[in-house]
Amino acid sequence: LLFGIFHFWSQTKIRPIVKKANFATTNTAIVGNDPLVLEIVSAIGTPLWGMKVIAWFSDEAVNNNANIKTYPLSQLPDFNEPIDTLIVAGNKSEEITNTLYKSLTKPRRVIKLMDVYEQIYQKIPPQNISTSWIIDSLTKGKRSGYVFIKRIYDIFLAIIFLSISLPISPIIILLIKLTSRGPIFFTQKRAGYLGKEFLAIKFRTWHIGFENEGPHLAQNNDPRVTTVGKFLRSVRLDEIPQLFNIIRGEMSFVGPRPERPELVEKYIEQQPLYAQRLLTKPGLTGWAQINQSYQEASDINKKLAYDLYYLKYQSLALDIKIILKTINTILSRNG
Fold first, then answer.
1. What is the C-alpha to C-alpha distance for residues 7 and 196, in angstroms, rounded to an integer?
2. What is the pLDDT of residue 11?
3. 78 φ, ψ (degrees, to nearest 5)
4. 15-23 vs 113-121: helix crossing angle, rounded to 10
5. Per-residue pLDDT at 216
6. CA distances, 231 to each of 45, 238, 243 (Å)
7. Helices assigned H by DSSP within 105-199
8. In this predicted model, which residue has the larger pLDDT, 209 or 174?
9. Nearest to 180 by CA among 147, 150, 204, 151
10. Which of 166, 192, 252, 266 could form a disulfide with 281 if both were Cys (CB 3.0 to 4.6 A apart)?
11. Phi/psi of residue 198, nearest 5 degrees
12. Would you say residue 198 has pLDDT above 90?
């Protein structure tokens, strides 16, 4: 337990400081072109990150930032001002690669723009992901030790929360039966790990018959939700039965939220990267859930940006961080 607490503290307190220290530099130059450049420059110039962007080398850049001078790409090797770090924006073309090679006659660090973006915003915009990013970031496989420990804490926490919920579950059941007609539990097919379907179970918070309208995303002040259901959803008590999904191994405490199979198919047609969410078990809570509102969750690209970040960086420390933030959200009734 003490080791787990220390590991969580070191990952959440010390590691971010080390990461920021690695990015901190005196003079930085952007090489290449990407729409994210101007968005990131405003963030990396703060004292927190300590980067001073002195030049942008690109033949295609559209620069409306008066504080950054734009130069042709060919001028990089002979640039006289001292540069400590080169941030490569966009895909490396042969021209950019050759120019970078010629410019490395001096000790300079080369980092990718997306790596900087991920650390600053803790999300990964799908529209800026290349095939090489997928190969580098999502094909390494999860560590067997992490998978084993995650399964152990999933079972342990599920049993603990089921024990805690025993006194209140009969009250919830009674309130559901007294205030609306229909079954106590709501079951629905969801897409799980690698797309395998399973039956997710919750306490019913909806008026019966809503499914005739077809699949819809949840939203604030949803008219389909019962009066009791609004309260249960606000404090996440409707999720209690999903603890059995976790014990059965169909879900985890932390992961991308499971969606209906027909919605998954629709989203993959719109955004093929959505299929990458199926590379890990769906979760009761997730990185997207603690960083988004219902309104933002309706935009699959915004939601996917957080899910992709979790897929790349999932670890015991990140899982604990998500669980603690979820508990805070529930207790504060905010989110």
1. 33
2. 56
3. -105, 15
4. 140
5. 56
6. 44, 9, 19
7. 113-121, 131-137, 144-165, 169-179
8. 174
9. 204
10. 252
11. -145, 165
12. yes
Confidence category of residue 1, pLDDT binned at 50, 70, 90: very low
Note the pTM of the prediction, 2 decimals.
Answer: 0.81
Listing DSSP states for 265-282 in one string gives: HHHHHH-GGGGGGGGS--
Residue 168 token pair? 């209140």
- Are 210 and 309 a contacting pair, CB within 8 Å? no
pLDDT at residue number 93: 79
Question: Mapping DSSP to helix (H, G, I), strand (E, B) and coil, where does residue 131 land?
Answer: helix
Instruction: Name 299's Cβ contacts closer than 8 Å, sequence gap at least 6.
Output: none
- Cα torsion 306, 307, 310, 311 to 10°: value is -140
Burial 40-79 (b: 16+ CB within 10 A, else e): bbeebbeeebebebbbbbbeebebeeeebeeeebeebbee
| Cβ proximity of 42 and 58 under 8 Å | no
